[in-house]
Recover the amino acids of this structure.
């Protein structure tokens, strides 16, 4: 993986894509499982977003590791890297659940005339839908909390050496 694109480190570029698509995929999955009208409109978009978000997580962590090796050692950067490693399982859970609820929705649709009416009947059971919804919500909440923790630790590691806003200003307003 290249370390920079157009002179910019790859990590901030990958992270911004991840930070946009991961919550978008999580929100789409929530809509998919909780709002029937949205489910019909979202269709294949939900699993596609979730899989793209899943693919972006290792790109972000790999580019972060490359950047980490070029920076001086820091406990804040180390903490950020440790938290970032915890995103992949949650992103995988989100992608699996997005694909699962999409497949369940497809199986619940009435079959074509003459097709085997017994296939997919288990998918129409309320308990199956409830379990899928609960697991999807767990994946969304888990991934969302991990994104917040990783983002906060990354921002802290990036900006912690800057003086606080207003520091160094005199009380009489002279700058």
């Amino acid at each position: 993986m290249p370390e920079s694109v157009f002179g910019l480190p790859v990590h901030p570029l990958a992270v911004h894509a991840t930070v946009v698509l991961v919550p978008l995929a999580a929100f789409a999955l929530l809509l998919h499982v909780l709002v029937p009208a949205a489910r019909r409109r979202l269709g294949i978009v939900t699993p596609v977003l979730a899989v793209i978000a899943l693919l972006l997580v290792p790109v972000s962590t790999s580019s972060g590791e490359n950047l980490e090796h070029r920076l001086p050692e820091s406990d804040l950067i180390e903490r950020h890297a440790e938290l970032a490693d915890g995103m992949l399982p949650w992103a995988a859970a989100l992608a699996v659940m997005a694909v699962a609820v999409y497949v369940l929705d497809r199986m619940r649709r009435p079959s074509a005339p003459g097709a085997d009416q017994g296939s997919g009947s288990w998918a129409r059971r309320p308990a199956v839908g409830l379990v899928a919804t609960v697991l999807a919500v767990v994946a969304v909440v888990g991934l969302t909390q991990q994104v917040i923790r990783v983002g906060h630790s990354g921002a802290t590691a990036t900006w912690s050496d800057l003086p606080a806003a207003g520091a160094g200003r005199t009380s009489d307003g002279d700058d």
The radius of gyration is 22 Å.
